Amino acid sequence: MKLIQGTAALLLVGVGLLLLANRTEPISPALARLSPLPPTPLDPTNRWADDARAVRLGHWLFFDPRLSLDRSVSCATCHDPSLAFTDGKPLAQTLGVGTRKTPTILNTAHSRWYFWDGRADSLWAQATEPIENPLEMGMNRLALAHRVYAETDLRDAYELLFGTLPPLHLSERFPANARPIPDDPQHAHAVAWQGMRDTDRQSINRFYSNLGKALAAYERQLIRAEAPFDRYVTALAAGQGDGDGHLSDSAVRGLALFLGRGNCTTCHNGPTFSDLEFHNNQVPTADGRPPLDPGRFEGARIVKASPFNGAGPFSDDNQGAAAARVRRLKTDSMSWGEFKTPSLRNLKGREPYFHAGQMADLESVLHFYSTLEGASGQSHHQENVLKPLDLSPTESADLLAFLESLEGRALDPHLSVPPAGPMHK
Ligand code: HEC
Ligand code: HEC
Predict the structure, then answer these.
(1) How far is the first Cα of the chain from the last one, in angstroms, to the nearest whole number?
(2) The whole model's pTM is what?
(3) How far is C-alpha 199 from the chain's CA centre?
(4) pLDDT tens across 97-116, in order?
């Protein structure tokens, strides 16, 4: 009996050891939060978000300069696929010079709020803004509706997907130029908009938000994941203690710094390397004067008031989670000067960095985090998590090597050039 028990015990120990040898390594929770990038979250506020015909139309529109007043500017003018969907300039510049840096669109379908100040809560609502921005595309929604109505390729593609356009030939009901301008109600276009019937304004807004929904469907395709860092984490999880060589020794040290003393994951956390929220890093202003940009403080007010938010009449889920989120949002003076935490995936080609392009390259960004040199805005709410890190040259090089390991797999090349036509075949 003893012998049998002894043998059984030995067997158990043996099986246990075998299991141990074969088990997969549990990776640390800190790493599991950063990788992999999960599938793109659904957007129930946009019923066309994943519709192949909408992707095709949005893809076409993204590259089509007819969305701008003088037919010279498309979304891709500023969001250039060869520059990680940015423009390489400190401040965006087309019809005029803006006040902020063009951010990337890569992986931004994972965001919760759009723009540096989060003044839009969906990709489709975001897309309506640059078209009418006088410094960007300079259009107004009535002129755009007339243009789509008149140009057969656009009209056919639009109507196939979204149904018949409003009767735009009725010029007494549909002025040539009109849009709401809350800041300038005396503007001729604002007056013309106010003069329209309520139901006609609604149908134009429906048209305008539908274009945004098609653009959003395309932008949702612009995902670059599976970076060397993700392959490193996958290898660790499979029990390969060295991460199968996917990161250099320097990048591994950089990762430790990123998670540890660097405190970077206080904000750059989650699979996009952003908490998807807003912080005031007191980045230096270009002219060294106190900052004037209210950032999130204004952004929160605007998104709550927007008819295109998730709780509004053009949302396809205005009782859902997105609606609750915008209703819950508080406008808070503590958020003055806060900007959205940018994703750190795919940093290459996005320079200059920060919300007004204040830093020419990643070395300068790291120099800022190391020294907080030129930090601005002491009078407002400030992040006290930011302390000068005093990085040694080796530590900076290590952090840089780690950031460079976050370049995802290349996009499918067809997404970076306009399709043959707006219509889905
Ligand atoms: C004049 C250059 C310019 C043009 C044209 C332009 N954008 Fe942008 N885009 C910007 C700038 C600048 C910002 C940031 C502005 C801000 O935060 O206030 C931005 C922000 C965005 C964002 C937010 C990204 C994020 O993660 O928050 C998206 C998405 C976007 N643009 C898509 C588009 C689409 C779609 C079009 C065409 C309808 C377009 N843009 C046209 C310059 C431009
Ligand atoms: C307190 C939150 C916070 C911490 C901590 C933090 N960041 Fe940031 N990071 C931000 C925000 C917010 C911005 C945008 C700031 C702006 O433009 O005003 C940013 C911008 C950046 C950018 C520029 C990206 C772009 O598109 O312009 C890089 C790179 C970056 N951070 C890396 C890091 C690294 C590396 C660390 C750790 C050493 C770190 N950050 C720590 C919040 C943070």
Answers:
(1) 77
(2) 0.94
(3) 33
(4) 999 999 999 999 999 999 99
Q: How many CB atoms lie within 10 A of CB 153?
A: 14
The contacts of residue 20 (CB under 8 Å, 6+ apart) are none
Helix (DSSP H) and strand (DSSP E) numbers for the chain: 15, 2
Both tokens of residue 334? Answer: 């503590």
Q: In whole angstroms, give the CA distance from residue 405 to residue 408.
A: 8
Burial of 260 (0-12, 13-18, 19+ CB in 10 A): exposed
Helix (H, G, I), strand (E, B) or coil at 208: helix
Ligand minimally distant from the alpha carbon of residue 124: 1
261/255 Cα distance (integer angstroms)? 10
In angstroms, the CA 398 to CA 70 distance is 47
Rg (CA), the chain: 25
- C-alpha–C-alpha distance, residues 334 and 278, integer Å: 11
Bridge partners of 254? Answer: none
Q: What is the DSSP letter of 253?
A: H
Give the model confidence (pLDDT) of 180-238 as tens digits: 999 999 999 999 999 999 999 999 999 999 999 999 999 999 999 999 999 999 999 99
* 336, 369, 372, 402: residue to mutate for ligand 2 pocket, most atoms within 8 A of CB: 369
Give the C-alpha separation, 223 to 48, whole Å. Answer: 18
Question: What is the distance between the alpha carbons of residues 213 and 62, in angstroms, rounded to a whole number?
Answer: 12
The C-alpha atoms of residue 384 and residue 381 are separated, in whole angstroms, by 9
Confidence of residue 21 (pLDDT cuts 50, 70, 90): very low
User: Best mutation site among 66, 107, 116, 126 for ligand 1, i.e. most ligand atoms within 8 A of its Cβ?
Assistant: 126
Q: Residue 353 and residue 257: Cα distance in Å, rounded? A: 21
- Decide: 310 and 43 in contact? Cβ < 8 Å: no
Which domains does the chain carry? 52-223 (1.10.760.10), 228-404 (1.10.760)
